[in-house]
């Protein structure tokens, strides 16, 4: 340790919140891919489930085939929209809720709270990380679906416009809900116990693992309160033939309601995030 | 006596021409019914290194975390770099360096990456490579923080604390877990920062560290400042009166405190007709001795605050004498 550190203090401008937020996105994304737990349970999980469902149920033939033998889709094609929706939920809710709860308990947030990084810059980093990783995940899922599972994807056009806004709205909503949920666990260790059951139950009742049309009405109604059902429904409208719309709750894709439900959750998540976020736990 | 000294301290701080970097007056903090800090006052001048000493649970960390802006105070006045820490904004934080007492981050990031990233938060950061060298982390620069030893991680904490070129640096028990060589290197680093004019508030359990680095020190016990002053004046002159210890002709260990130990030794030798007194020692109380006598005296003065202490009402120096005889 040499002792000479120049101490001149010329006046300098503070870095802007936006610039700091962008530098946080790069940093956060690197941290994401360096955490094996996160990579497996958040990033790769939808790939795993898509593979398992395709392998397990493909022997039963296509799903949704009309009496005349037309209009059906392969098992993989049927589950693809659900897995895309699950990826959005995992990348936002599961990832951020556990990540931020962990950072709160291991002292990361306390250290950041003592620096000139603003909470907004920190949020930009987290949401940006969710966005970057969710886009990568979705692109890879689509590539796997197309080239490994031979699933036909929609032609360029209106369906991809729907895909874009459902994805964008769903991912940002997921990120805010995840930030809000991170305030619930009392410690980093209990975060798994709080977050995983919520995310898992939502996937079962929202038409990700089980066909939504086969669930009892009360369960469908319950699932409709939460955003995942709407993300999955929006994704099904993109990737499934229109003949599948009859299996939805109202017999149609209901895209305006998809937008409304996700929009409401976005606002709720944002408000809860702003109200609950603290660099450190508030003392007595 | 302590109360009078504190008051003088405050006034002398306020009278200096340049405004103090840190000014604390009658600081109080309660958690429910527990009074963690009960009326602490001190000030730190620009460029000064001030050591805050005291036993665990005495209120050191609560005090320092109030100054850092992490905790709200219950009462009193606090000014840090001219700002109330409770209202300190980002520009204020940019002028501080904070080394927290604990850090347990997962650290999936290399030393260089972490320092470069944190340097980006500040308007006028230090050069990343210079800080890595100064912190003795050159060989670990491309190692992930999770792979470092406890002492090496602590160096990273310190490096992150100074990367923003702080005007005021908080060091909360910075050298816990350091080997002796690393501690001496750390002291060199801090002396370099002092030479740059950095004001430093240090808490430590190592009294030699406080003596090496501190210009002044305050001792907190039971949430109160029991003494404050220049390191070599803590405890007052009486606490620094040397001991003369020897074994008399009956084989009994004897001890006397005197400001003139040479004279006492000469008398002893004369009384023995020029023979050498057995086991003769002249002991000057170290900062640690003075500190312990002050802390034990404070605990003794308030029965029930320290469960271990039953020695109520005794004078500090007699406790010091007891402790040294039994040692």
Any overview of this molecule?
The complex is a heterodimer of chains A (284) and B (327). By secondary structure, chain A is mainly alpha-helical. Chain A contains ten helices and no strands. Chain A has one domain. In chain B, α10 packs across α11. In chain B, 42% of the residues are buried. At the A-B interface, α1, α3 and α4 of A face α3, α4, α5 and α7 of B.
User: What is the N-to-C order of secondary-structure elements of chain B (H for helix, E for strand)?
Assistant: HEEEHEHEHHHEHEHEEEEHEHH
Number of domains of chain B: 2
Percent of residues of chain A in beta strands?
under 5%
Question: Would you count the extended β strands of chain A for me?
Answer: 0
Number of helices of chain B: 11
Judged by helices, strands and strand pairing, the structural class of chain B is alpha/beta
Helix content of chain B: 25-40%
Regions with little confidence, pLDDT below 50 for 5+ residues of chain A: none
Structural class of chain A: mainly alpha
Shape of chain A: elongated
What kind of sheet is the major sheet of chain B? 6 strands, mixed
Task: Outline the secondary-structure elements.
The complex is a heterodimer of chains A (about 280) and B (about 325).
Chain A lengths: L16 H17 L2 H22 L17 H32 L1 H6 L5 H30 L9 H24 L6 H18 L11 H7 L3 H13 L15 H22 L8
Chain B lengths: L1 H14 L6 E10 L2 E11 L4 E5 L6 H8 L7 E6 L9 H4 L2 E4 L11 H9 L8 H7 L15 H13 L5 E5 L7 H16 L3 E5 L3 H7 L2 E6 L2 E7 L12 E5 L5 E5 L3 H11 L6 E6 L3 H15 L14 H11 L1
């Amino acid at each position: 340790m040499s002792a000479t550190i120049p101490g001149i203090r010329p006046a300098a401008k503070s870095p802007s919140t936006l610039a700091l937020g962008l530098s946080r996105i790069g940093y956060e994304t690197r941290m994401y891919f360096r955490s094996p737990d996160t990579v497996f349970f958040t990033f790769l999980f939808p790939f795993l489930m898509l593979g398992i469902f395709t392998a397990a149920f493909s022997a039963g033939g296509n799903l949704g085939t009309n009496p005349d033998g037309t209009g059906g889709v392969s098992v993989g094609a049927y589950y693809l929209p659900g897995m895309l929706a699950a990826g959005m939920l995992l990348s936002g809710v599961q990832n951020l809720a556990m990540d931020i709860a962990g950072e709160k308990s291991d002292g990361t947030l306390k250290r950041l709270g003592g620096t000139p990084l603003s909470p907004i810059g920190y949020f930009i980093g987290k949401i940006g990380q969710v966005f970057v990783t969710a886009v990568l995940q979705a692109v890879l899922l689509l590539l796997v679906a197309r080239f490994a599972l031979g699933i036909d994807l929609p032609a360029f056009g209106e369906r991809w416009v729907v895909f874009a806004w459902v994805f964008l709205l769903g991912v940002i909503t997921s990120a805010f809900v995840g930030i809000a949920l991170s305030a619930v666990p009392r410690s980093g260790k209990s975060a798994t116990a709080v977050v995983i059951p919520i995310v898992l139950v939502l996937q079962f009742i929202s038409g990700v693992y089980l066909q939504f049309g086969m669930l009892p009405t009360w369960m469908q109604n319950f699932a409709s309160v939460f955003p995942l059902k709407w993300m999955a429904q929006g994704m099904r409208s993109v990737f499934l033939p229109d003949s599948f719309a009859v299996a939805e709750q109202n017999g149609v894709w209901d895209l305006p309601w998809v937008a409304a439900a996700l929009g409401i959750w976005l606002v709720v998540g944002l408000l809860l995030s702003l109200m609950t976020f603290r660099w450190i736990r508030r003392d007595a | 006596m302590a109360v009078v000294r504190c008051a003088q301290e405050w006034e002398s701080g306020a009278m200096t021409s340049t405004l103090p970097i840190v000014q604390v007056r009658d600081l109080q903090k309660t958690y429910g019914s527990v009074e963690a800090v009960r009326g602490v006052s001190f000030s730190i001048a620009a460029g000064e290194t001030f050591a805050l000493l005291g036993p665990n649970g005495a209120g050191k960390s609560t005090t320092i975390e109030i100054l850092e802006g992490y905790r709200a105070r219950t009462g009193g006045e606090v000014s840090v770099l001219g700002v109330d820490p409770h209202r300190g904004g980002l520009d204020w934080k940019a002028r501080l360096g904070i080394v927290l007492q604990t850090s347990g981050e997962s650290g999936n990031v290399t030393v260089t990456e972490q320092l470069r990233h944190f340097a980006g938060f500040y308007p006028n950061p230090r050069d990343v490579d210079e800080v890595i060298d100064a912190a003795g982390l050159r060989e670990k620069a491309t190692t992930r923080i999770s792979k470092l030893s406890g002492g090496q991680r602590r160096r990273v904490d310190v490096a992150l604390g100074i990367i923003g070129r702080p005007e005021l640096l908080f060091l909360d028990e910075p050298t816990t877990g350091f080997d002796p060589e690393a501690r001496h290197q750390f002291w060199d680093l801090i002396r370099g920062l002092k030479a740059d004019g950095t004001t430093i508030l240090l808490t430590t359990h190592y009294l030699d560290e406080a003596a090496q680095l501190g210009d002044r020190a305050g001792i907190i016990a039971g949430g109160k400042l029991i003494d404050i002053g220049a390191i070599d004046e803590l405890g007052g002159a009486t606490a620094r009166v040397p001991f003369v210890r020897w074994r008399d002709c009956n084989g009994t260990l004897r001890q006397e405190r005197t400001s003139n130990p040479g004279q006492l030794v000469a008398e002893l030798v004369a009384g023995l007709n020029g023979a050498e007194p057995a086991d003769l020692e002249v002991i000057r109380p170290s900062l640690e001795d003075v500190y312990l006598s002050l802390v034990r005296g404070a605990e003794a003065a308030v029965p029930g605050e320290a469960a271990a202490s039953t020695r109520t009402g005794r004078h500090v120096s007699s406790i010091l004498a007891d402790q040294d005889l039994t040692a």
